[in-house]
From TrEMBL:
InterPro entries: Kinase-like_dom_sf, Prot_kinase_dom, Ser-Thr/Tyr_kinase_cat_dom, WAK-like. This is Protein kinase domain-containing protein. Residues 1-238 form the Protein kinase domain. One of its GO terms (biological process) is cell surface receptor signaling pathway. SUPFAM superfamilies: Protein kinase-like (PK-like) (SSF56112). One of its GO terms (cellular component) is plasma membrane. Pfam families: PK_Tyr_Ser-Thr.
């Protein structure tokens, strides 16, 4: 509690010089971006422990523990909520990439780094793996990989090259989690007993209206929803995800991704005589 309000404390369980550097990096970047509504707001820092404890506004992480296991995403999140989350986190990443004299790369976009406050605003947190790209350069090279399996951009995973596309790829993989409720796997994408060896197969399934093979069914249980509008949005959402991971057309930058998600959110269905069911 801080001044009679609930807060979120970020306390590291590990120590050492490497972790110390990460903690101070998290603190530094958090202070730089706290003014933006789509970042976890830093309220202060407690120095009474071995390492600083960051005190942030309270928000709930979008993952959830069910039956002792950690779900990649809270199944109660509706489709419309997931679009908003994607749009707002894209805005946050676009800000990191463009707001400073040097491009700032997050490097670890994944569900457990993303929070929702009580008003449903999406917040990006955890900046311990962030890295600046020097002015006049388009990449930095690292010897030690940092990030999460399933969200690592191939060029970074194989060569250690950190670019804007490092975040774009991770964000595309995160979009896949929002859509399917499952963690993406390198080289193949699995949905229960249905193995999709190529992500483009997912796009064809959406085009053929085979939603049962693609989407997280939990998000579609909403009374009075517009099924045709959802189909249009899901198709566009998946195609954008495939672009982000380099499997369909040119890889966009995060500013363009944010603009496209805003367009997808506004997509409206065309009235028709026959109503479909998913």
């Amino acid at each position: 509690m801080l001044d009679d309000r609930v807060v979120l404390n970020k306390k590291w369980a590990y120590g050492g010089s490497i972790f110390s550097e990460k903690i101070y990096r998290d603190l530094a970047v958090s202070s730089m971006v706290s003014g933006h509504k789509n970042f976890l707001k830093l309220l202060g820092c407690c120095l009474e422990f071995s390492y600083p404890v960051l005190v942030c506004e309270y928000a709930e992480v979008i993952t959830r523990s069910l039956r002792g296991a950690r779900c990649p995403i809270d199944p109660s999140l509706t489709w419309s909520m997931r679009i908003i989350i994607a749009k707002e986190i894209a805005n946050a990443l676009s800000y990191l990439h463009t707001a400073f004299s040097r491009t700032l790369i997050h490097k670890d976009i994944q569900p457990c780094q993303i929070f929702l406050n009580e008003n449903g605003t999406a917040k990006l947190g955890e900046f311990c793996n962030c890295v600046f790209i020097p002015e006049g350069e388009t990449y930095v090279q690292e010897d030690v990989l940092e990030g999460t399996y399933g969200f690592l951009e191939p060029n970074y995973a194989s060569k250690g090259l950190v670019t804007e596309k490092t975040d774009v790829y991770s964000f595309g993989a995160f979009m896949f989690v929002l859509l399917t409720g499952r963690i993406p796997q390198p080289m193949f994408w699995k949905r229960e007993d249905h193995l999709v060896e190529d992500p483009e197969c997912l796009s064809r399934l959406v085009k053929d209206r085979r939603f049962d093979k693609v989407v997280d069914k939990n998000m579609l249980v909403v009374e009075g929803r517009d099924i045709e509008q959802e189909r249009l949005q899901i198709k566009a959402f998946l195609e954008l995800s495939l672009r982000c991971i380099g499997r369909q057309g040119d890889v966009p930058n995060m500013t363009d991704v944010a603009k496209e998600l805003k367009r997808i959110e506004r997509l409206k269905s065309v009235p028709c005589l026959v109503k479909e069911t998913v």
